[in-house]
Amino acid sequence: MTAPIVQPLRAPAGQRAGGASRRLVGLALGLVLAATIAGTAAAAEQARSTLTIGSGGAPEVAPSATGQPAPPTKPEPKPKRHPKDLPPVDEEPEPPTPGDRITVTSALNLFRSAGFRYQDPNFYACTATSVMDMLNFVAIVGSGGTGFRWSVGLGSTRRDTILAWERSHDTMVGGNGSDPHGWRNALNYYGWGTAAMYGTARVYEDYAFTSYARAVKAAVRTIIRTHKPVGIAAWRGQHAQMITGYDGLVGDPFATDAAGSYTNTFTIAAVYLTDPLAADAAVNKRITYTTLGTTTNTRFRFQPYYETDSPYDDPYTTGWIRARTDWYGRWVIVAARR
Length: 338
What we know:
By secondary structure, the chain is an alpha+beta fold. It has one domain. Helix content is 22%, strand content 11%. The chain contains seven helices and seven strands, in the order αβαααβαββββααβ. Strands 1, 2, 3, 4, 5, 6 and 7 form a seven-stranded antiparallel beta sheet that branches. A hairpin with a 4-residue loop joins strand 3 and strand 4. Helix 2 crosses helix 3, helix 2 packs parallel to helix 4 and helix 3 crosses helix 4.
């Protein structure tokens, strides 16, 4: 792609306790069940480390009658205490410069059936399968750009190898799946190599937003700008899904105000959602913009992230912050920067 490498906007180090840079907060995306979020974060972590899909789970979230993973059905209680070192949110790559060549169309979909596989029968591998599928789509449409090294593949061994790699490169404690950092790191490593895991060399980044609208519109901008799919932290942070396209776009998604910030005044009719879990039966599924944000079907409603089992700092970003601090209570996506 011709778009320049851009660094996600970050607050100066001095604005955070301990000079921390931007980080994104814990998630058991690999279908790891959450323990009840009550009391201190430490208590939640200790309980959650032994609860996974298929083990019975917490009262709020349980496997379905068929044994398949199921999304939460009750409102998620919030911890009594919130982190004091809240990082900046609503960040994404800076608006394009006049020299950037970006073609905006009313509809675009990057899904390619030859690049898709389900995570089944590995119910912990939603993030790893999403890495495989997303990189397959990038390879098939030819949007990898300089340094792209992934070759299309759908093997179970490859899926499980990616999950094992994620687990050694994420910020979780316990569990069996991974989190947004593991997902992001695996996309960069398997797609572009070790160097792409650090700083401005990254291709994919994880972002947290204060509203549904900001998150989805940032995802649409990414798809238009980079022709790369976007991951979303579904099921309030317990599952991984992918947005590969949109339709019905009206307005300019890259319009900015006098301060250089996106106005977000454009609209879309729908997005195309793909879920790696076969039981959800959502492959290249068209879901209206309104439905994705409001449906009572929690399998397909994009909600804020409420996992707290990522207490560690991401070593691939300068500064220090508990990863969960960045994500908690926000809409989280894993999107390409270039």
